[in-house]
Amino acid sequence: MLRLALRTLRYRIGGFTASFIALFMGAAIVMACGGLMETGIRDDVPPQRLAAAPLVVAGDPANLERAPVDAALAAKAAAVAGVAEVVPDVAFPVLLPGGAEATGHTWSGARLAPYAVEQGRAPRGPGEVVVGANSGIGPGGTVALRIDSRDVDYRVVGVAGAPVEAEVVFFADDEARRLYAKPGKVDLIGVLLEPGATADGVRAGLTAAVSGRDVAVLAGDERGLAEFSDTGGGGEAIITLSAVFGGLAIMVALFVVAGTLGLSVQQRHREMALLRAIGTTPGQLRGLVLGETAFVAVLATALGWPLSGRLGAWLLTRLSGAGVAPQAMAYRQGWVPVVAGVGISLLSALVAAFVAGRGAAVTRPTEALMAAGLQTRWFSVPRLVFALLCLGGGTALSVITAVVMSGPVAASTAGPTAMLWAAGIALLSPAAARVLIAVLRWPVRALSGLSGYLAVLNTGARRVRVASAITPVMLATGLATALLYLQTTQASAATDAFAESLRADAVVTGPAGGVPLEVVDEVRALPGVEAASAVVDSEAYFPDHEDGDDEITVLGVTPSGVTRTMDVDVTAGSLDDLRGDSVALPTGWAEDLGAAVGDPIRMKLGDGAVVDLEVVAVHTGSFDAALLPAGLVAAHTTGGRATQVLVKGPESALAPLTGRHPDLEVAGREEALAAGGGGEQTGAWVNYLLVGMILAYTVISLVNTLVIATGERRREFALQRLIGATHGQILRMVGVESVVISLGGIILGAIVSLVTLVPFAIALNGTFWPRGPIGIYLVVVGSAAGLTLLSTVLSTAYVLRTPPVEAAAAPA
């Protein structure tokens, strides 16, 4: 039967092509999502500036903040067998002329890339620098570098080049350590090996030499975590996104493949009935369908593999550009996601083929011949059971979302809710189609005359086939509406929460290094300024708590200005006492920890340092963060500066500040609110990208289904033309049919979106309606209706090109 299956494929190019496209795209998307997950798990950041150092000693990348390394560790590292030389290096932010951001390093650290002097010479004294070849600055002149909010003139004595993307400035070693301003500390220690020594062999001894310190010995791609300090743990977001959308892609792929293969098999009921009539057994018939499907699936997944790598790398680039993934992260797709993608694609194809061919295989030959011309049977007990399970699960998740969940976490159940409802309705689509056709019959006939009358008769008689066309419309509109409005609702709620939490009239921000803490005193001294507070963002843990791995957001603030600039309402104690080693806890955490004002608690800060603090206040507000003195938090962050300074007072009062510090920027309240919502908007656009990819795949299914269904009717159209119907009448008839299909799919899609969005809106903001522009819904339904009409009419016009006598005589 396999040989027969392969020989007959060439006579069904349309169905073969549709099945191939569905399987090809599904395999590529699933393998790409698998590659993204592997990328997040590996968290590989290939080194650039540290490429020549086989080993690097740096602050533990597992910490949320990067801590400097004790310079005394260099001597211990140098004493390890196999180590030829150690190269301590420092790193600090530098602004080049024109505002370009760079990093300052010791000239000896240039060996770690290695950099080579292309023009000029190395720096020899405190007033000399070597710039990177990418800077566009030539040797021989003087350049003003902004370091620590001060402009300092340096003479450019050389230009160095290396395959490194980041901008760098090299100073004489003593000058770089002075500017680093952390006596006895370095940023990292590069380790060069003796000839014949291996990184693996030396690493164990080096780890033992630096044990007991909060540092790590890094090798391979791990070295990039020391070079790009903001990449540690960056893979977590990629893992979450790839898991969510990979699961969504798998479920959509199952529907798309099952629908396409099912419709392709339905076209061949007459052929299969004849095979049964001449003695073909049910097992042979199933083998025929499975053999054809296996051949197409293997070919599609084999060709989908190369595309998946490019698609995954492209998605990672988009995610990196949006700030969701580190820019330096490398895309990795090993054999595991490829094998998983191939297995899922082949399994879904074979299961879909088995289900699709089962009906023809078990039907008696005489019954099959009678039913082949017009399919009416669709119901089965397994189908009903799975449909009820999906609808029951969807209903349960809708209730859980509305009653149990609260805040953004409700999105974790809202997404699966949409998929379960869509699955349940798709399984019962023939029954739903019968109800929809009955409801739409009279309005369609009244508005479209004879064409509508014929269209209603056709859709009623072919409701099982019509249901196959309605299902992809339902999937496209229901999933698009649900998933897109989930994002707009969540982004809108986050923006409102930020607006509620911000009491400041202006916000001061700086370059990548942040804002020096002393700027707060300068701001407070300006005429017209009522209050000012630094904000230093970080994360921390309570190691003595039973859930010691639970992170808590930490904000370093200025006690005298925090209540005037942020939504902080103190319920116990006073923020005036927030000085030294102290903390103000949010109410929920204070209750969870059993801590009251005056109690001691232990906190592990972002750089791994454990500090003993006294609770001086308990507060409520629109954010759930522990408040600590700004200086204490800054001392345990990578940059050591404030993220921003919040100001109560007119924006115009800060004009003298920007005059003294040109690198600082001042934004008014409205600008600050727009920028504050940028993170949520960025996350929303990332999700739009991934959702769009899945929906594009669904649209392919929609077009495939409609084209196949229309091509199947060539004999029907030929008979209509032989009895006098014109091209225009047939085109108008199928146009009205496409309107019925579109309306049916849109109505069912609206049910899917409503049972998803209403509970989510209740959980998120207590309303019964999602938030977002109505234009999104209009574009979704308009696109679905337009594609349905266009696909149906164009494919019908193509079929009508064949003379009616030839079309009527063609094999079914």
From TrEMBL:
* Top-level taxon of the source organism: Bacteria
Q: One of this protein's GO BP terms?
A: lipoprotein localization to outer membrane
For this record, the Gene Ontology CC terms, alphabetical, are:
plasma membrane protein complex
Topology with regard to the membrane? Multi-pass membrane protein
Q: Where is the ABC3 transporter permease C-terminal domain?
A: 244-358, 689-804
Q: What range does the record give for the signal peptide? A: none
Question: For this UniProt entry, which segments traverse the membrane?
Answer: 238-264, 285-307, 335-356, 384-406, 418-443, 464-486, 685-709, 730-762, 774-800
Q: Which UniProt keywords apply?
A: Cell membrane, Membrane, Transmembrane, Transmembrane helix
Q: Which residues form a coiled coil?
A: none
Q: Mind telling me which Pfam families this protein's record contains?
A: FtsX
The record's subcellular location field reads: Cell membrane
Q: Which organism is it from?
A: Saccharothrix texasensis
Does the entry feature the keyword Transmembrane helix, yes or no? yes
Q: Which family does it belong to?
A: Belongs to the ABC-4 integral membrane protein family. LolC/E subfamily.
Give the protein's recorded name.
Putative ABC transport system permease protein
